[in-house]
Design brief:
Elements: H1 3-20, H2 36-60, E1 71-75, E2 78-81, E3 84-87, E4 91-93, E5 97-99, H3 115-118, E6 127-131, H4 135-146, E7 150-155, H5 166-177, E8 182-186, E9 188-196, E10 199-206, E11 209-215, E12 217-220, E13 224-226, E14 259-261, H6 272-287, E15 303-305, E16 311-315, H7 318-324, E17 329-334, H8 339-344, E18 350-355, E19 361-367, H9 371-374, H10 376-384, H11 388-391, H12 403-411
Parallel strand pairs: 4-14, 6-7, 6-12, 7-8
Antiparallel strand pairs: 1-2, 2-3, 5-13, 9-10, 10-11, 15-16, 16-19, 17-18, 18-19
Helix pairs in contact: 1-2, 1-4
């Protein structure tokens, strides 16, 4: 969805939230005016030169020949771009993904936006319907609602962020529902979409009863799909899974020798930091002797949701541990168990640690301010295979946010 531009926009939402909640701290402030063009323009001003610089680097790098156009396979080792056929002994596929558009009746008859367009809207919508309560809907729903747009999130699940730990998604749903300018329609099956004089209208069924939701704009946030269908994969012997992601081995090589793939287009977690790791693996393995190849290691791979509240997670959650019959101990520590939490006045946020019988970290989950940063305090020891008892020896700064992590380890 555009990791960098979305976070730059969400930071504007964080600034607005700080003003709107300042009364709690005795600071009485209000927002006089919202300069939407500045909110969006700041992203363009920062990133456009960067994109142009990358393009210029590609075109100016000695030994690199860029082709501007869509590529399709003609055979295993032949790719066609703009009518020209290119071949190579080694091929790397990193064609990414795009928003998934569900087959909702009437959707093709009304204007809608995806995360691609939502990041660069020229005007702020007065109201926005979001279909999808995953991380994209949670992040962009927060962005628009914090800046004054009336947002309605529709999802078929009973809670938002259903991939998260059950305690986290319950708390997130409660907190998100309580946000100003925010409405949740959960457990809802979308039946159809149509246009009206004010924008769009979505018909949903909840508990066997139909109702309609209206808004100026409609955002489809129902996940992403790999771009394999645009690449002529049927002209190759490269294997894909049932949802058209390219299958790779632990070295990021496909079943066709010396054809490699990485990023959103393969069957690994669709995260930028995952793709960056995979790129380093492919860069090494492309030229390494087979005996010296490096396998990708997805152990302790974190992710974060930059919404309000923030979420940071790594490893297993309670749902998966119970389903797999893995014994564990769960420890939960609230932000209000720390001096930093008292300063924030935060009584609902927490860190949750899941520990194995041999005292290793099975998973960790944080919901609250700076969760995306604090989760790294769990990622590092988990990645290195350290026990919670070893982590109890670490000294944490007082009265810093990291004491939340210390308290979780001490309780484990």
């Amino acid at each position: 969805m555009g990791c960098i531009p979305s976070k730059m926009l969400i930071y504007a939402a964080e600034a607005a939230d700080a003003v709107n909640h300042s009364d709690y701290f005795g600071v009485h402030a209000h927002i006089d005016r919202l300069d939407w063009s500045r909110v969006v323009g700041r992203v363009k001003d920062k990133l456009s030169p960067m994109w142009e610089g990358i393009s210029g680097w590609y075109h100016g790098y000695d030994g690199l020949t860029p082709y501007d156009g869509a590529a399709r396979f003609v055979s295993d080792r032949v790719v066609e771009v703009n009518g020209e056929q290119i071949t190579g002994d080694k091929i790397v596929i990193a064609a990414g993904s795009r928003p998934f558009i569900p087959p909702i009746p009437g959707l093709n008859q009304v204007p809608f936006i995806t995360s691609d367009e939502a990041l660069y809207l020229a005007e702020q919508p007065k109201s926005l319907i979001v279909i999808g309560g995953g991380y994209i809907g949670a992040e962009l729903g927060h962005y628009f609602s914090a800046l004054g747009t009336e947002v309605t999130v529709i999802d078929m699940a009973p809670e938002m962020l259903m991939i998260e730990d059950p305690d986290v998604r319950k708390r997130f749903t409660e907190a998100f529902k309580a946000k100003p300018n925010t409405n949740l329609v959960l457990g809802a099956a979308v039946k159809s979409v149509s246009g009206n004089e004010n924008g769009v209208m979505v018909t949903v069924e909840v508990d066997g009863k139909e109702r309609t939701v209206s808004g100026e704009k409609l955002l489809i946030a129902t996940g992403r799909r790999p771009n394999t269908d645009t690449l002529g994969m049927d002209q190759t012997g490269i294997k894909c899974d049932t949802i058209r992601r390219i299958a790779v081995n632990e070295y990021m090589e496909t079943n066709v020798e010396n054809i490699w793939a990485l990023g959103d287009i393969v069957d690994t977690p669709p995260l930028k930091h995952v793709a960056s790791m995979e790129a380093r693996i492919v860069r090494h393995n492309l030229w390494a002797d087979k005996r010296e190849r490096i396998a990708a290691d997805y152990n302790a791979m974190p992710h974060a949701v930059f919404s309000s509240p923030q979420v940071g997670s790594v490893g297993e959650n309670e749902d998966r541990l119970k389903a797999d019959g893995i014994p564990y101990t769960a420890v939960t520590r609230g932000y209000d168990s720390t001096a930093w939490g008292w300063a924030l006045g935060d009584e609902g946020s927490f860190a949750k640690l899941l520990v194995s019988e041999d005292r290793k970290i099975l998973g960790a989950h944080i919901i609250g301010p700076s969760a995306s940063i604090l989760i790294q305090e769990f990622v590092t020891p988990m990645r290195l295979g350290l026990t919670v008892d070893e982590m109890k020896k670490v000294i944490y700064t007082h009265p810093a946010a990291s004491e939340l992590i210390e308290n979780a380890f001490l309780d484990a």
